[in-house]
C-alpha cells in the first residue's frame, strides 16, 4: 500500500506546493516545509517502485510524467538531499521568502525533468526550469538583472533547439515516450546535442555560467550551481544512452575532454571566487559529458562513471559554493587575492571548503576520487578504453591537474596565505549544518565506495573486460592510488612555480566576445530592419499621395509628366496665370513612326510581365 501511494506521489508537485506555502507561512515554518518537501523527494526516490507512473494522454499524445529507473532514482536522491541542505543554508544566509519560493519552483521543474518519462513532459519542465532559474537570478537586482537577460537568451535558444529536436523525433518515431534508445538519429540527435549543449556549457556557449552565477544572492548561487547543469547532463544521457551507437558519440566525448581543460584553465585565471567555481562547473561537466560520449559507444563503465560523477558533483559543487558564500557573507569580499589567513577566523568554513576541495580534486578517501577514477579507466586505452580515446585520456589528465591547481590556489589565498586583517565570525549554525552534511556525504561515498557503486546503474556486479584480462571495480588498487599521487604531486609542484606569475595574470575568456558581438549584430540587424521598414513606408505613402493628387488633378499631372520628357519628344508651354490667360498646351514632336515604336515597346514590356 505504501509503495502504491509513493508511485502516486508526484515529487515535483510536492515541492511546488511547498514553494507556495513558503510565501504565506511565517519564515521559519515556510522554510521547514520547503526542506521537508525535498526530504520527501529523497524518500520517494529511494523506495518508489521502478517503472512508469501517472501515465496518460495529453492532447492525444501518450505522456509519462513520473518514470523511475536506476538512473532517475540516483539523480533524484542527489537532488533531494541537496535541496534539504540548500534550504537550511538559505535560511541561515538570510535569503528572502520570495527568493526561496522561486528557488523551490525551480527545483521542482528540475526534479520533474529528471523523472520525466517522455520528451513532451521533459520539454515542459525544461522550459519551466529556464524561466524559474532566470527569476532566481533577477530577484537579487543590480548587475544580476542584465546577467539574467543574457542567461535567458542562452537558455531560450537552447530550449528552441531541443523543442525542434523533439518535434522531428516524433515525426520519425511516432511517439514521445522514452524507449531506451534515446533521441532519433540524424537531425533530431544533432539538434538535441546543440540545444542540450547550451545547458551543459559546451565551449562557446558556456559564457552564461561565469557571467551569471557570481551575481545573485549567495544562497541563489548554491541552487543555481547544481539544478540546471546536472539535470541537463542527465537529460543528455537520456538522449544518448549507453549502447545507443550514435555517430555523435565520439564528438560528444571529445567535447567533454576539451571542456575539462578549458574550464580548469580559465578557473585558474580568476580573481572572483564564484567565477572560479563557475568555470569548474564547466570543467566537471566535461568529465560527465566525456563519459556520456563513451557510454553511447558501448562502455558500461563510462555510463556508471558519468552518472556517479554527476551524483558526486551535486554534493561537492554545492558544498564549495556554500563555503565560498559564507566567506562572502562574512567578509563582503569576492576577490580571493584580497583575503587570506581566514582558517583561524572561520575554521568550520575552512573544513567545509576542505571537504569540497578534496572531493572535486579526486583525492583518495573522497567521492570524486571514485567517480573520476571510473572515467579515467573508461578512457584509458591500456585499461578499459578504446584506442581512439588516447587523446581524450590525456585531456582528462590535464583537466585534473588544472582542477588541483585551481583549488590549491583558492584554498591558499583565502584560508592560509598570510595573516587575516579581518575579525569575522564563522558560519552560522544552519550554514554549518548544511556544509558538514554535504561534506559528510562526500567522505562517506569516498570511503564506502561500494555504496556509490551500488547506486550507479550499469555497474552492478559486472566484470569489465580490458586488453589485459578482466576484473571487478576496485578504485583503491595500487595503480589507481599511484595515479592519484602523481596527479597531486605534479599539481603541487606546478603551483609552487606558477603561484607568483599567476597572481599577476588577469586574462579574459575569449569566448566572452559573444556578448559584444551579439550586441553589434543585434543592433545593426535592428537598424537594418527598421531602416528598410521606414524606406518601404515612405515609398508606399508617397505613392498613395501621388495617386490621390493625380486623381484630383489630372491635367496638372499630365503637364508634370510631360515636363519630364525630353524636348525632342514634346514641348510644353509655360502655364499662364489663371486670370484670363490661356492654359498650357502640349505639342508632340515625334513622328508617327517613333510613336508606334514607343507604343510597341511599352506593350511588349507589359505583355512580357503578364506572361512571366
From TrEMBL:
Subcellular location: Cell membrane
Keyword S-adenosyl-L-methionine: no
Gene Ontology CC: one annotated term: plasma membrane
Keywords: Cell membrane, Membrane, Oxidoreductase, Transmembrane, Transmembrane helix
Keyword presence, ATP-binding: no
GO-annotated molecular function: oxidoreductase activity
Domain NADH:quinone oxidoreductase/Mrp antiporter transmembrane: 116-378
Membrane topology: Multi-pass membrane protein
Major place of residence: membrane
Bilayer-crossing regions: 71-91, 98-117, 123-140, 152-171, 183-205, 217-237, 249-269, 276-298, 310-329, 350-371, 391-412, 433-451, 479-498, 592-611
NCBIfam families on file: PRK12668.1
UniProt xrefs under PANTHER family: HYDROGENASE-4 COMPONENT F, NADH-UBIQUINONE_PLASTOQUINONE
Protein name, UniProt field: Na(+)/H(+) antiporter subunit D
Amino acid at each position: 500500500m505504501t509503495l502504491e501511494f509513493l508511485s502516486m506521489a508526484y515529487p515535483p508537485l510536492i515541492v511546488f506546493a511547498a514553494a507556495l506555502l513558503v510565501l504565506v507561512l511565517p519564515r521559519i515554518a515556510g522554510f521547514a516545509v520547503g526542506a521537508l518537501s525535498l526530504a520527501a523527494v529523497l524518500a520517494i526516490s529511494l523506495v518508489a517502485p521502478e517503472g512508469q507512473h501517472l501515465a496518460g494522454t495529453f492532447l492525444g499524445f501518450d505522456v509519462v510524467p513520473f518514470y523511475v529507473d536506476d538512473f532517475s532514482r540516483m539523480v533524484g536522491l542527489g537532488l533531494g538531499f541537496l535541496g534539504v541542505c540548500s534550504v537550511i543554508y538559505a535560511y541561515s544566509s538570510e535569503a528572502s521568502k520570495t527568493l526561496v519560493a522561486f528557488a523551490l519552483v525551480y527545483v521542482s521543474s528540475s526534479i520533474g525533468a529528471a523523472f520525466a518519462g517522455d520528451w513532451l513532459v521533459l520539454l515542459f519542465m525544461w522550459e519551466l526550469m529556464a524561466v524559474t532559474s532566470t527569476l532566481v537570478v533577477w530577484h537579487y537586482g543590480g548587475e544580476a538583472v542584465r546577467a539574467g537577460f543574457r542567461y535567458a537568451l542562452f537558455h531560450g535558444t537552447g530550449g528552441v533547439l531541443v523543442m525542434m529536436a523533439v518535434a522531428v523525433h516524433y515525426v520519425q518515431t511516432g511517439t514521445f515516450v522514452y524507449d531506451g534508445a534515446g533521441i532519433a538519429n540524424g537531425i533530431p540527435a544533432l539538434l538535441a546535442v546543440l540545444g542540450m549543449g547550451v545547458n551543459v556549457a559546451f565551449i562557446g556557449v558556456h559564457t552564461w555560467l561565469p557571467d551569471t552565477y557570481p551575481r545573485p544572492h549567495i544562497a541563489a548561487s548554491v541552487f543555481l550551481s547544481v539544478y540546471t547543469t546536472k539535470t541537463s547532463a542527465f537529460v543528455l544521457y537520456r538522449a544518448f544512452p549507453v549502447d545507443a551507437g550514435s555517430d555523435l558519440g565520439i564528438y560528444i566525448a571529445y567535447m567533454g575532454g576539451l571542456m575539462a581543460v578549458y574550464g580548469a584553465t580559465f578557473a585558474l585565471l580568476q580573481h572572483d571566487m564564484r567565477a572560479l567555481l563557475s568555470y569548474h562547473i564547466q570543467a566537471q561537466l566535461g568529465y560527465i559529458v566525456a563519459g556520456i560520449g563513451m557510454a553511447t559507444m558501448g562502455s558500461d563503465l563510462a555510463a556508471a562513471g558519468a552518472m556517479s560523477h554527476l551524483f558526486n558533483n551535486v554534493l561537492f559543487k554545492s558544498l564549495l559554493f556554500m563555503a565560498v558564500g559564507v566567506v562572502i557573507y562574512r567578509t563582503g569580499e569576492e576577490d580571493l587575492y584580497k583575503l587570506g589567513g581566514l582558517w583561524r577566523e572561520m575554521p568550520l568554513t575552512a573544513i567545509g571548503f576542505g571537504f569540497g576541495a578534496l572531493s572535486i580534486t579526486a583525492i583518495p578517501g573522497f567521492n570524486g576520487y571514485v567517480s573520476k577514477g571510473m572515467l579515467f579507466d573508461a578512457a584509458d586505452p591500456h585499461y578499459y578504453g578504446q584506442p581512439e580515446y588516447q587523446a581524450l585520456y590525456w585531456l582528462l589528465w590535464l583537466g585534473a591537474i588544472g582542477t588541483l591547481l585551481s583549488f590549491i590556489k583558492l584554498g591558499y589565498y583565502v584560508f592560509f596565505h598570510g595573516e587575516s586583517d579581518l575579525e569575522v565570525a564563522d558560519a552560522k549554525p544552519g550554514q554549518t549544518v548544511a556544509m558538514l552534511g554535504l561534506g559528510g556525504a562526500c567522505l562517506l561515498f569516498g570511503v564506502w565506495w561500494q555504496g556509490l557503486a551500488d547506486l550507479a546503474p550499469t555497474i552492478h556486479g559486472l566484470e569489465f573486460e580490458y586488453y589485459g584480462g578482466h576484473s571487478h571495480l576496485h578504485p583503491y588498487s595500487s595503480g589507481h592510488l599511484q595515479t592519484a599521487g602523481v596527479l597531486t604531486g605534479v599539481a603541487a609542484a606546478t603551483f609552487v612555480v606558477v603561484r607568483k606569475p599567476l597572481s599577476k595574470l588577469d586574462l579574459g575568456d575569449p569566448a566572452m566576445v559573444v556578448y559584444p558581438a551579439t550586441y553589434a549584430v543585434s543592433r545593426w540587424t535592428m537598424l537594418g530592419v527598421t531602416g528598410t521598414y521606414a524606406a518601404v513606408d515612405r515609398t508606399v505613402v508617397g505613392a498613395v499621395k501621388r495617386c490621390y493628387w493625380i486623381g484630383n488633378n489630372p491635367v496638372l499631372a499630365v503637364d508634370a509628366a510631360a515636363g519630364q520628357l525630353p524636348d525632342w519628344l514634346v514641348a510644353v508651354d509655360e502655364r499662364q496665370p489663371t486670370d484670363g490667360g490661356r492654359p498650357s498646351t502640349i505639342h508632340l514632336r515625334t513622328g508617327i513612326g517613333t510613336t508606334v515604336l514607343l507604343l510597341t515597346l511599352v506593350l511588349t514590356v507589359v505583355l512580357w510581365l503578364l506572361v512571366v
